[in-house]
Write a structure and sequence with these properties.
alpha+beta, two-stranded parallel ribbon, 8 strands
Length: 155
């Protein structure tokens, strides 16, 4: 992190990273606060759906400087799978889960790996899906949600 000397007085266009982190965390906490009932999986699925709703309102782009961050998705409406994974992870942090960022800083799909209800699983904020087991969408795989929707990665 850099020291700019104006940490107490930054404009919204020149927000410091700590201010951006605080704004993103506030959104993540508001999502976590809506995901308090049910099993771990039910709570994480709801959180993934809520994170996905920000993607639906946003723009997929890597041309904005905040595309890789939770702030980019939650506060600016710009995202990639990297930023969406970090946003999902921030929500998981607020929910009290430990998680691992899969494929960070790689030009391939990314998601969160975590343990839910004592079982290994995954959460994909960009897809708005989560489940137990291994992440199913790699190498041409698919995932069928409980409502019958089938998910695949664009090739």
């Amino acid at each position: 992190s850099s020291s700019s000397g104006n940490s107490s007085n930054s404009s919204s266009s020149g927000s410091s990273s700590s201010q951006k982190d605080q704004e993103a965390r506030a959104v993540a906490q508001s999502i976590a606060d809506q995901c308090t009932s049910g099993s771990d999986l039910e709570r994480v699925r709801k959180a993934a759906q809520l994170v996905n709703s920000y993607c639906a309102k946003g723009t997929y782009t890597s041309s904005d400087p905040d595309y890789r961050t939770a702030y980019g998705l939650f506060c600016k409406g710009v995202y990639t799978c990297a930023g969406t994974t970090r946003a999902m992870g921030l929500v998981l942090d607020c929910m009290g889960f430990s998680w691992q960022h899969m494929n960070p800083n790689q030009w391939t799909h990314q998601w969160c790996a975590l343990t839910m209800d004592g079982q290994p699983g995954w959460a994909d904020g960009m897809g708005g899906i989560a489940d137990y087991g291994d992440y199913p969408l790699l190498n041409g795989g698919s995932y069928t949600a409980s409502d019958g929707t089938v998910y695949t990665l664009a090739q």
